[in-house]
Amino acid sequence: MTKKRYFGAALMIALSLIVGACGGAGDKAPAASGGKASAEAAGGEKVKIKFFGMNMAYTSMEEMGAELQKKLPQYEIELLTVDTGTIDTAIRTGVAGGSPADIYFYWPQNMANIVKDKLALDLTPYLEANGGEWKNTFTPELLELGQIDGKYYNVPFGSAYPVILVNNEIFEQAGVAPKEEMTWQEFMAICEQIKQKTSASPFAVSSEPDRQSWLIRQGVMSLANGDGKLEALAHGELATDSGYYEGALNNIKELFENRYWYPGEGALNITRDEINAAFLQGKVGMLAEVAGTALSISESAPFDVTVVKWPAMGPETVLLGGANGYFIPANAGNPDAAVEVLKTLLGQNIQSIHLSHGYPPANRTIKVENPVLQQIMTFTEDLYPFEFHTKEAKLKSYYEGEMVPNYLMGLNIKEVLGQLDKLRQDAFK
Amino acid sequence: MAQHPTRRNIIFGILLLAPAAAAIIATTLLPMLSNLVIAFQEWNGFSAATWIGFDNFRNAFSDNYFINSMKASFFIGIVSTLGAVPLGVLLAACIFKVGKYEGSAYRVVLFVPVMIPLAIIGLLFTFLLNPEMGLLNKLLEMLGMGGLQRAWLANPDTVLWVIAIIGAWRMAGLTMMLVFASMISIPGELFESSRLDGAGYTRQFFSIMLPLVRPSLQVSTVFSFIVLVSTYDLVYIMTRGGPGTVSQTVPIYMMKTAFTYSNFGYSATLGLLFSLAGILAIFLLQRLFKGETYEV
Questions:
Q1: Are A353 and A368 in contact (CB under 8 A)?
Q2: Cβ contact (<8 Å) for B10 and A6?
Q3: Chain A residues within 8 A (CB-CB) of chain B?
Q4: Which of A247, B3, B183, B243 stands the most exposed, by the fewest C-beta atoms within 10 Å?
């Protein structure tokens, strides 16, 4: 035999091994055994459900997860922890890889880019079945957030919007009193007082894109709202030379350069865990957090905490956000089972556990009686959940994660806003 | 005289090699070919792909993110390699001089960073470099050099240098091990005769050891460069490509393009161009080491 023949034989064997290996999976049933599968697989095996929804920022999650598994013994529910900073990548990796989770955590008001890429399942038939039995359990305003072109793609489990937690002791030392509503100028004056009169840092917000962008997003919304242009902003109609972006960016730059933003230069690389620890250790006067976690943080703090609204760069505060929620991916292995899990999780029993940990649920059949929660829930009157940048992934990534750091690191305003405008025009053309 | 293998032996050899060949084809060759095809397509990872010719390549050459991420990747690759290789050689030369037992202890200690997972190294240094309570800034403060304190990973002037230095620290152990292995194979007579000629250790190092360990040096330089230029996990754990996009390396940008922007075609193009640039750099490195080789 010649060398070529030997090589050919080796290649044939190698290729047949590959083909054999690739074909091997074919005779095995998928984990979540088909679209309309029963709760138990043919061999009496439990159906596996991958629940990528354990947002551990909520202390209730573990208890809720355990209760969920207890209530649905016919399913083997794999509870996966969510990192909200990398959630987009996790979702797209899972869906593109052909092995998505059955349920994903996501914000209903941000579903546009997920729906645009056809990644989410239409939940309308499930919600409207039996005369809207499931639909009627949700607070309508929160459920509407996940509606796109008349179809529901996300179901909410709680409201989510930023608030500011105030360390009353530090405020007292600085000689200032917490106000439920404050303008940006008042906020900056308080920061200066804290810096001058105490050893604490005035303000902390973590550097994860979905967090640090609260500053620019709410700043621009508040400024545009002052001129009655909030809706135009949400529809991507406001060019970046409108002055709102530049005004908000300059305000943020002042906050950063005056070292009001904990821990100073390192503010662009600080994590949520680090700022929360710093707040609880009394190193920070004001902490930016989501409303849902405000009560649990204030209860664990060794000092008195007051919850106040986000400072208004314009005439009044406009709060971004809306709700946290869940969606089922378009190529989920077992959508019926996933819906059943969601119905149980978002039902009265399990959501009561959520409330007992201090988180207001989206299930309207549950009554909230805690006065602090009731106060935080009044902030929802300032909510405006529609934002232009959620329309397209590249625009979202730039607006939330890059624009502010780039400007703070010295890139000129023309370049920073020019790029935003280009992305905005591409997204809305 | 060497015997020709029998046909039976050859077939047996092929059978033994076939599983490994299959694994290599399935995990390296086929993905490479698939990547090559995807690079010429517009594909969001879910819908049908569209053939778009060289559009992705044209976009890449005018994409500032890609150009800057190339710069970041090559900065880390070059600076880290320039740090790791000389440091590794120096460590090998030092260990070569110490006794057998102490030497093996030092080798183990110095090789440990190569064995630690990058994610752990990333986390470790994130704590050490924390601007508020990190060891480095505290140390500077204790030494009365508070003016040098920085937010090392949030400062655009320092972040890439810090990552490159950590990369060098990690890979120096590998160079040390490879070079040391070459050093111990140098015949003792060469050292004895040079000593008789009055050469000290420094002279022996430059005139005997360095020329003779050059093949190992070449291997470790190329290997270190390949590992460091394609850094993903270390940078991601420490900075996620930030602040802004200052430390965004090509692999991070590729991941973002594919899994955040759902543009798999363009991501494949970036990967292809990055690989070509890497191959070119490796070719240049090998040219750099070309010259007379000595055998012992």
A1: no
A2: yes
A3: 1, 6, 9-11, 13-15, 17-18, 21-22, 85, 88-89, 92-93, 95-96, 117-119, 207, 263-270, 274, 278, 393-394, 397, 401-402, 405-406, 408-411
A4: B3
Residues B55 and B184 in one domain: yes
Question: Is residue B200 a contact partner of residue B115, using CB atoms and an 8 Å limit?
Answer: no
What is the CATH classification number for the domain harbouring B60?
Answer: 1.10.3720.10
Same domain, B15 and B91: no
Rounded CA gap, A186 and A165, in Å? 16
Mutate to test the interface with A, among B123, B127, B132 (most CBs of A within 10 A): B132
Q: Phi-psi category of A77—alpha, beta or left, where left has phi over 0 and alpha has psi -120 to 50? A: beta
Give the list of residues 6+ apart from residue A172 with CB closer than 8 angstroms, or none.
none
**Cα separations (Å) of A202 from A164, A193, A263, A276, A316?**
12, 8, 9, 14, 22
What's the CA gap between A321 and A21, in Å, rounded?
47
CA nearest neighbour of A164 among A345, A369, A382, A429: A382
Residues B19 and B96 in one domain: no
Token representation of residue A224: 């545009």
- Interface pTM (ipTM) of the complex? 0.81
Residue A307 DSSP symbol: E
Average pLDDT over residues A156-163: 89
Task: Using pLDDT thresholds of 50, 70 and 90, give the confidence band for residue A23.
Answer: very low
CATH topology classification for A47-160+322-382: D-Maltodextrin-Binding Protein; domain 2 (3.40.190)
Query: How far apart are the C-alpha atoms of B183 and B92, rounded to whole Å?
Result: 8
| Exposure string over A35-61, b if 16+ CB within 10 A, otherwise e | eebeeebeeeeebbbbbbbbbebbbbb
Fold of A162-320+392-428: D-Maltodextrin-Binding Protein; domain 2 (3.40.190)
State the residue range of the domain holding B22: 1-30
DSSP one-letter string for B24-80: HIIIIIHHHHHHHHHTTEE--SSS--EE-TTHHHHHHHT-HHHHHHHHHHHHHHHHH
pLDDT band per the 50, 70, 90 thresholds, residue B295:
low
The C-alpha atoms of residue A302 and residue A309 are separated, in whole angstroms, by 22
Coil/strand/helix, residue B197: coil
Q: Is the overall model pTM greater than 0.90, yes or no?
A: no
Q: What are phi and psi of B211, to 5 degrees?
A: -65, -35
